[in-house]
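Q: Start with the shorter request: fold the first protein.
A: Done. Sequence, then structure:
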Amino acid sequence: MMAPEALVITTAIRARPEEIRQARVLSASLGYPYVPRGRLNLDDLCRQWDAAGAVVVTRERLILRLAGKEFFFHPGLAQLRIRALRAGKTDQMVKAMGLRAGDRVLDCTLGLAADALVAAYVVGDSGRVVGLEAVPVVGTLVRYGLKRYRPGDAAVAAALRRVEVVVADHREYLPTLDGESFDVVYFDPMFRIPLRRSSSLEPLRPLAEHAPLEPGSVAEALRVARRRVVLKERRGSPEFDRLGFRRVVGGRYSPVAYGVIEKGGDQLA
């Protein structure tokens, strides 16, 4: 994982006092140095400070500039999936989770929050979706975006506001929870292994935690889940067998699949 000093926090060139203040707040909370932007472009700024990248506070969003690429929160494909659900189509993740209105969902690997957003749409106002993100800067960027992004779709807007972001490693967070405190616990470690190099997640990869999912974490998830634990992986991945997910479901032509362990059903070997 990238060291904290490898990033700096700055603003757009024509920053208002509010953006400068926000950048200083983020610097204090994340532990990255705040650097006044001046008139420098971002590449020159990073070279001057020997930084691998920068977090940029602008009027509209937070931007991570890393390896010549930019990342900022956008609901992306989650919007299309929500529209498809509203049209009566099947979402394989929702099916694997067995989601319904009022459910409590713990997403242990939040990433860009796409899956959490879809879950938040399905569980509705009476449900709850908590997303864990182990990398503080990623969690901060996503939390910022969830609060400030303004989609034209009211259903997507409502789902954005329902996702609770917790900056924490699931290996440390799960043991602190009461048993059966969530209906579904979800893992998506695919962020660590991209399906294609052009993935929109690629700018974040140097910051990621690359450790594989541990059987002990799945056991903790089973304790915390009331109904089931779900794992998203590549179709045919050996991770399903290694971690005890005997039931695997998903679309016939999809490159991904979902392992399901029902509470009281198939348990870890």
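Q: Next, the second protein, separately.
A: Sequence, then structure:
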Amino acid sequence: MKRYRIHIVVLVTVILLVTTVSIASSRGNLNPRILPPNSRVQGLTYGEWSARWWQYVLSTPTPQNPLVGGTGNRCVFQRVGNVGLVAVDPTLVEPIQCEVPAGMTLYLDILSAECSTVEEEPFYGGNEEELRACALSFTFTDLQASIDGVAVKNLDQYIHTSPLFEFTLPEDNILFTNELTGKSISNGAHLILAPLSPGEHAIYLHASVPDLDFTVDMNIELTVTR
């Protein structure tokens, strides 16, 4: 009887895990490898994952910060549970080559912007209302993405705004400020990928922010190891 109960517990656990990372396979989803925009992963929404992503990015000193240099070969700069937060220098021209372990869910920031209480215009907001208005003022256009040559559909549905979040900056920070704590709200286009099969995968991400005259055009050559 004890062994039978163990088997039941294991089976239920496996079912729950598969359900968590396989939401993308549910009916009505046009992008089977992408978790739908209304998904929760480890209890967090897309917008809440954006807040986590920015918190880790902002807390990383400039010399080690993935957004301002490097080759991108360590594209998963932070792991939260089973979710790998992908961040690379968006100005890289050459294809980005990196490895991730099998079974990892990937959070991809196509292009986003954040407004905070410690930056200057056009990224400044003094309170939550101002920060949200600031973040929403940026328009994301020409959104394109593909996984192994298959285009992601309805990308405009993957634009999310984060809740208000707090952050702590290192002294050598990418915001170039001496004020090391603040509050922020981010807005942008993001994808959360269900775990990819072991082997080689090609990810393409493209987007523009006309207000900032900035465009991201990234090719990621991803190897999923066994």
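Q: Describe the second briefly.
A: Confidence is low (pLDDT under 50) at residues 1-26. Residues 2-21 form the longest helix (20 residues).
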